[in-house]
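We close this part of the discussion by returning to an individual protein. Part of our work consisted of pairing the sequence of a single chain with a tokenised description of its backbone. The amino acid sequence and the backbone structure tokens for this protein are reproduced below.
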Amino acid sequence: MPNSSSLLLLLSGNLFLQAALALSLTLLLHFLNIPAFFLSGLFTYVHPDDVTPTNPSNGVKAAIRRPGTNGSELIKPRKKSKERFEFDENKAQIFRLKLSDGHLQTRIYFQDFRSAFNSIIVSLSCLLLHRFLTKNEKFGMLKNGSFIPILLGLLSVGRVFVLILRISFERSASKLSEKHLSVVLGFLGFVVALGFVHGVVPKWILDVHFEAVHGFEKLFIAVFMGCISCFLYMPAVRIAHAFWLGTDQLRCNLPIISCGWFARLLLHANYMFMVLTSMLWVKPLADLLLIDQNKASNTRIEHVRELVGNVGMQKSEFSRFRLLCLLVSGLLQIVSLRANVQMYLNEAVLCWYQRLHASKVPDLGYSRAKVFLHNHFVCLVVLQFVLPASMVLLFLGLSQLGDDLLTNFQGICSLFPCSLLDKEVALFMAWWVLFVWTIYTSATLALFRQGILYVS
């Protein structure tokens, strides 16, 4: 049996392990440059400039005089016959090149993507290590080593939130109408969030519990949920565009635009897991998957089992199943990053192809600008794909730290609402990010299917 001094030494070793892991990973990721590995080898496109424009600039034109006349008498312009437009095939060219580390260094927001990616990896690694370390809830978070994953997790969530706020209002990265619509959706999300935190939404609709949140913390959570609803609209629309092109819903059969079978499998699996995980917090579906303890409703359960079989799970099993689905859904979004980014770049090629064949004399000015912007903002779009999935994983990791870690630490509780680290609240935040992301993506795909929206 170990004595008390050796036990304290073992417990204080958790803090040392957490600090060693955080420092070593920070140094290692600084030299490895893993974010560039995610994007290296993707195909980007360059449209050549129009060096011989057909329409000259509307500047001051020189006056033409007849020989032997004074300067006041100017020649009258002759009526020109209808010009024959001959399209220069050189203007229809588009060049494809592979992204390399040198190309990525020149892209806007690449350094932000690299630093955010490294900090998220360090935070998730510390949260994962805390999950498997030996802990004693009677000792404080310093001896248990939970101070480092809590601090890094909160800092990473704050950094992701600020970064997604910056890229949401980047000029020329999205249409002004999309920004206005995202603000409207954010306000609607704030109103819905107020209904959640104040118990207005009936319990038979969503399996949500906010008993540990009081007063100002409810308003803080509602505002945070509203901001998430605002900032996730444009990333979800881009995900829907990538899914629509990657799965060849246009039936254009263009090899340069479509992707391989494995990338299509990832896109389908990502979307299916998003929908499945979002529905697990809906109470009617959850009741079908749980074993009903109320004997008065056993007749209904027997009818359900006759249709779908014995799918009942215990409450603890169902909770672990929801956590696993959240984890898989977040990881699938990270794994399918390359496929989504490639489809984003291929969208510019589709625009160029449509403009090239839209008329006998095509105007490629719009497609030239589209190709340039997609090439210029590629790292901004990468952040839009990565940050929501990172928020899901970070909130999921914070929900597994354990209960009552900060209740006795009054210094932090006076600066930060400690109940926000409650297990149910953090888990609900992870689900809310995924739920809003799924709603926006599904709505955009439905509008694509109905022909109201289209990719151009």
Summary: The chain is about 60% helix and 0% strand. The CA atoms of residues 256 and 445 lie 22 Å apart.
